[in-house]
Amino acid sequence: MEILSKIKSDLLKKEDNLSCYATKSEDVIRLFPKKEDIRPAFFHDIDTIIHSTSYTRYIDKTQVFSFFENDNVSKRVLHVQLVSKVARTIGRCLNLNEDLIEAIALGHDIGHTPLGHTGEKILNDISMKELGIPFMHNLQSVRTFIVLNNDNLSIQVLDGIMCHNGEMINNCYKPKKKTKEEFLEDYEKSSLDSSYAKKLRPMTLEGCVVRISDIIAYIGRDIEDAIRLGRLDRKTIPQNIVDVLGDNNRDIINNIIIDIVKNSYGKDSINLSSEVFNALNELKKFNYKEIYDKANTSEDLEYYEKGINKLFYKYLEDIETNNKESIIYKVFINNMPDEYISKNDNKKIVIDFIAGMTDDYFVSMLEMC
After folding, report:
1. Model pTM above 0.85
2. Residue 69 exposure: Cα atoms within 13 Å on the Cβ side
3. Burial of 115 (0-12, 13-18, 19+ CB in 10 A)
4. Fold (CATH) for 37-294
5. Is the pLDDT of residue 1 over 70?
């Protein structure tokens, strides 16, 4: 025990050299009391995340392109690893807590649906129609850890996940300190109002790093994937963007990271120069027009929408008729605690089940209907 205590003490002493703006293990806040072990608090959270079955399902969830025949194109599992690497690179340069950064990055997309943002939009439409509340993958990620998995992750990690929205770019990310109660209030209000969710700010500088790293990790990689699939010609990237960021994933990542480090070192915020910020905004618009808006054919979109709706109403009927032979009972409901069943509307239960599906599982379930 003396050896373990010394190791734990030595590990925590390493945090003494972190930036004064970094979040330390001694700052950890949890929903429920927890005796920390030899691992620093946020390192422990990493283990909790990667050993969850929810993390396992990243491996077959869409990043941008679904059901392609090319093993070199990104899946969601690769995206979260790239976010982690980009964010830890920035965090190391700024002397922040890399364990906290890695935990947020690896957990940030746990709540993503099958079929990527297309699946998310369809589930949101169903949720708004049936429950009058939005479905957003960042909030579903938090819900997965708190409600579905019953994991006691730190508030700092949960907040970073909740506030990670990589679709919204700013030239300055400054954290907003929060108590546990304030985090829960943000979570509850965001779950009812998507406009409130868009105004969220992370409570830690590490959360701010992950937020900007989300777009850094996908913006150039999605270009490479589109080129591999013959969906894009590199020469079509506007020259004014290329002059600032480059025309390939390696240069785009490097140039943005260098810009952030130069403009954020020794500061209490994460900053982009106006030149890089404007170029990144333009590149995002280019990607939407040339990649994301063209990723699926009209036939694909119709198939996905009809398929998710068919599964939703089939499983809802199964619950309401108490059909214990249904797959939603065998795979999901029977494995959930009674408290979850009693506290959640049947419609929300079905949404939770569908949101957790992988792409291939979605197809196999649809074929069974």
Report:
1. yes
2. 0
3. buried
4. Hypothetical protein af1432 (1.10.3210)
5. no
